[in-house]
Amino acid sequence: MTECSKFSRVTQVLFLGTGTSSCIPNVPCIMKDPPTCKVCTSSITEEGKKNKRRNTSALVKIVDQSQKVKNVLIDCGKTFYESTVEHFPPNGINSIDAVFITHGHADAILGLDDLRQWTTHKNNSLNVFLNQETFDVIASTFPYIVDTSKATGGGEVPSLRFNIFENDSVVEVFGIEFTPLPGDSHLSHFGYQDAIDTVLLHRPKLSIFTDFCHSIDHYDLLESLEKFNAEEKLHVAPSFDGQVLHIINGEYTLSP
C-alpha cells in the first residue's frame, strides 16, 4: 500500500484472521488421545491462544482526503462472520467501505454472502476489487451475487459492485494505492523460507508474516524471529488473530 495523496493515509491494520483455509485448531488433532499436535492443543488454552487462527483476512483503516474514516476489507473467507463478531466491537469498527479479494480460494471468498449485513438497508453497494480469474470463480460459486436476477427470492442478497483489475496494475482506493503482488511461481502460497528470502531481498522497515498452518507454533516462531531480527537488524513479526498495527506519522506500533 502506498499513500498517493498527502491527505489520505493508512492509520491501522486489523488482522481478522491469520491461518490457512483449515484454520487452527484442527479438530481431529484436539480429539486425539493422547494429543500429538502441540499447536492445535495449545490453541484452545489461554496460554497458547495466539495459535488459534481463522482464515487470513485484514481490515485496513484509511483516513481519506475529507478526513473521513474508510475501512477496506482484504479477503472474505469462511470465517469472516465469526472474525467480525469477535474483533469488530473491541476495535470500534462499524462499517466496511470496500473489499479486495486476493484469489479465488474458499478461504478468501466463501464469506461474501455475509456481506449482505453491510449493504442491506444502507442504499449503497460495496465496491469489490479483484482480478478476472477470481471474478470467474465467484461468478460460478455465487451466481446470484454477480447477477441478482438469479436470486431465489428467499432472502436478502449483498449488493456488490465488482471492479476487475489487471494483474500488474495498481489500484487506487480512497486515495491509497494497493499493489497486487504476483505469485505465479508458486502452486498456492509462499512458504516460510520464501517469505524470509523476500524480506532479505527488500529489507523493509516492517514485515508481518501470516497464513499459518498447525505445523508452526506462534511462540516458537516469535523466538526464532527475534534472533533473526537481531542478526539482520530487521523487524519481522508473526501475526495473530486480533493483532492491530497502528501507523501514526509514518511510525508504527504493533500490538504484542
TrEMBL record:
InterPro entries: Metallo-B-lactamas (IPR001279), RibonucZ/Hydroxyglut_hydro (IPR036866). The keyword Hydrolase applies. Coiled coil: none annotated. Keywords: Hydrolase. It comes from the Eukaryota. Residues 71-184 form the Metallo-beta-lactamase domain. GO terms for molecular function: hydrolase activity. This is Putative hydrolase.
